[in-house]
Design goal:
Blueprint: E1 2-7, E2 10-12, E3 33-35, H1 37-53, E4 55-62, H2 68-76, E5 81-85, H3 95-112, E6 117-121, H4 132-140, E7 144-155, E8 160-166, E9 171-177, E10 180-184, H5 196-204, E11 208-210, H6 249-252, H7 254-267
Parallel strand pairs: 1-4, 1-6, 4-5, 5-11, 6-10, 7-10
Antiparallel strand pairs: 2-3, 7-8, 8-9
Helix pairs in contact: 2-5, 3-4
Bound molecules: flavin-adenine dinucleotide.
Length: 279
């Protein structure tokens, strides 16, 4: 039987995230929340493969108690079981501390109910670091396939997974032994409308709530602010790009317009070397 585990994070439903200027942490209060979109697609892929192979999908999340809503949403989308790891001591975690907590929780789940594939989103749309999936894979010492766009095959007999991953130039087809961890692009699967039975089940679903005391017990040295060496010194928004200058070729003619544009680009030091204007 196939056992997939999906790590899901709740994120603010806005690109206008607010940062606490004192702590450099994300302010969640008063901001509408959603399941991280990449995680929703990763979950959809896990559920698709559960339906092909038979088995189950577990989800875990680390965050405040309000993340329960996101675990219920995962159940609505086809997850069978979920745990929320929540404790005040976990607050302020950077990617190192987040990876430690998730990896420790995954080890505990795997010991009871062996996991075949770990699904992560490519990145969270608030933190945007894309470090947590790789961080967990290293801690668990399992192969990782990042930027997955398609799962070609999961062979539980041969204990192999074949995945297409997108690089800047091409699609790579990668085979890895199970258990493996993949970080998913949105192309991995369409997020379906929830079937009615899953919708009804999700309304009453209560995830398991794990604290610092477990199960499993987390080492206070490695969690929360204490276990997070990253410090965000300063936050800000990048300056908006300046509006471009228009050269009206109808007024000055195309050759003059082109020459003017090239001269201006050369003066700004941004002329394409292929045009012969290397600075
Ligand atoms: C603006 C900003 C800048 C930050 N910069 C840094 C930084 O430079 N270095 C740093 O260490 N931290 C940084 N943080 C903190 C960072 O958000 C947290 O470490 C966060 O818990 C995980 O990082 P991420 O959101 O970038 O996740 P990513 O690594 O982008 O997430 C990838 C995937 O990991 C899984 N995942 C991530 N978090 C959780 C979770 N809590 N529960 C379950 N699954 C999860 C999901 O599947 C997700 O799709 C920053 C936060 C903000 C808001």
């Amino acid at each position: 039987m196939f056992h997939a585990l999906v790590a899901i994070k709740q994120v603010p439903d806005t690109t206008n995230i607010r940062i606490d200027p004192e702590t450099g942490n994300l302010v969640r209060e008063g901001v509408p929340a959603i399941m991280n979109p990449y995680d929703a697609h990763a979950l959809a892929a896990a559920v698709e493969w559960k339906r092909k192979l038979g088995g189950k999908v577990s989800v875990i999340s680390m965050g405040p108690l309000s993340f329960t809503v996101t675990i219920r949403e995962a159940v609505e989308l086809g997850a069978d079981w979920g745990a929320l790891i929540t404790d005040r001591k976990l607050a302020g975690a950077d990617t190192l501390a987040t990876s430690y907590v998730l990896a420790t929780a995954i080890q505990a789940i795997h010991a009871k109910d062996p996991i075949d594939v770990l699904f992560f989103g490519k990145q969270a749309i608030d933190g945007d670091t894309a470090q947590v999936g790789p961080g967990v894979a290293v801690r668990l010492d399992v192969p990782i396939i990042t930027y997955a766009v398609k799962i070609r095959d999961i062979d539980l007999n041969r204990r192999r997974i074949v995945v297409e991953r997108r690089t800047e130039k091409w699609i790579e087809v990668v085979e890895a032994p199970l258990p493996a961890l993949i970080t998913c692009e949105k192309d991995i699967a369409e997020v379906p409308f929830a079937p009615l039975p899953d919708l009804i089940r999700s309304l009453r679903y209560e995830p398991e709530v794990w604290t610092m005391d477990g199960p499993p017990a987390f080492d206070p040295e490695y969690v929360g602010v204490r276990g997070s060496p990253t410090v965000v010194f300063k936050m800000g928004t990048p300056p908006l790009p300046q509006a471009g200058e228009k050269i009206n070729s109808r007024e000055v003619g195309v050759p003059v317009a082109v020459k003017t544009a090239l001269d201006k680009a050369a003066a700004a030091g941004i002329l394409n070397p292929l045009l012969g204007g290397v600075k």
